[in-house]
Design a protein that fits this description.
homodimer, 208 residues, mainly alpha, 86% helix
Chain lengths: 208, 208
């Protein structure tokens, strides 16, 4: 969502520095939104799918090792705890108990040896849809002023105001949600958008 | 890197469907690269920093809890293992041993209760630099044909060939590196780039 706001905003701002025709700015902005939402949505879908495959592959490997070389796997369980200064004797009951529950043992290794969380199978589709939809929704905010106004310069001014407010609100909510300081989070997302747009504007003006 | 290749490629391809002037396509592409590299680089830097702060905040909370309400924290350690079907008796030695080593105990809770890895303090800067630099390097590949050739259509053809090859090579190397099937990974990154560019082209042609 923040990328969806920032990049089309900065692109349109940059083009305003080089071109007067809002039609071209809008076309470029919409092309960017189409490209970005597909690249991120489809990219997110395939990344989630390959995470799920990676998990399944490692799980099969652990299942095989637990069945075929249990002594080495028991030693690996013990190693996990020895990193926390526990002795072989203190860990023995846990190692022994896990060795009698192969399914729980594999789950334990996946999480505590390899640090992998079991991916939600539906996540791939929903995350792809969410990413793509929020990129489109985010991108239409900075572009809409250029659609309404016929003057690129005025479009830029309105787009900057609208987008910086949207980035601030988005950053504030994100900060609240993730437990960070909300106001600082709001200022950070606004800063990223402002710097990106400023750089794109300066570069395009310098070229044109 | 893949986003850096895909989005400027798709944007330029989209604009080729609407505009003949390669100068505008190059300007828009460079503005996109500036915007995208700053948004992703600065965004990556701030995300890494806020991960580090989140870790430090949770660590302080665990340190406080271990010191002030040790019984509840010992119960939480036991809970982690009970999820794997272990009994209170089997887990008791580990719980007891951890309770005598507050530092290791906090580390254990961070990793196994909260699932957090300690972030590398230098990672924020290097990851931001890497993201930004690879976005710029990736973006210049699809744009360079439009800089050399004066015809948008010919630029598009050469850009598509060069970019799809670069996406394929990148996907192949990424697949090799992450242990997935390299050829499939190559086809996937090429597919994302092709679909994104096709959609941007169709949309821009439809508007223009």
């Amino acid at each position: 969502m923040a990328d969806g706001l920032t990049v089309p905003f900065a692109l349109a701002a940059g083009l305003s520095g080089a071109i007067d025709q809002t039609a071209i700015i809008v076309t470029a902005g919409l092309a960017e939104i189409a490209a970005g939402s597909i690249a991120m949505g489809l990219g997110g879908y395939l990344a989630a799918k390959s995470d799920a495959e990676h998990y399944a592959r490692e799980q099969r490997r652990e299942q095989k090792e637990v069945a075929e070389i249990p002594e080495e796997e028991m030693e690996e369980v013990a190693q996990v705890f020895r990193g926390y200064g526990l002795t072989r004797e203190q860990v023995a009951p846990v190692v022994h108990a896990l060795s009698e529950r192969p399914k729980a043992w594999v789950d334990f290794m996946m999480r505590f040896e390899l640090g992998l969380e079991e991916p939600d199978p539906k996540r791939a589709v929903t995350s792809a849809g969410t990413i793509a939809a929020s990129y489109v929704a985010g991108g239409l905010i900075p572009l809409s002023p250029y659609m309404v106004l016929q003057n690129a310069y005025r479009g830029l001014i309105v787009s900057a105001i609208v987008t910086l407010i949207a980035l601030g609100v988005f950053g504030f909510i994100k900060g609240k949600y993730t437990g960070a300081r909300a106001l600082r989070s709001a200022l950070q997302t606004m800063l990223i958008g402002g710097v990106a747009a400023g750089a794109a504007f300066a570069l395009a003006k310098w070229i044109a």
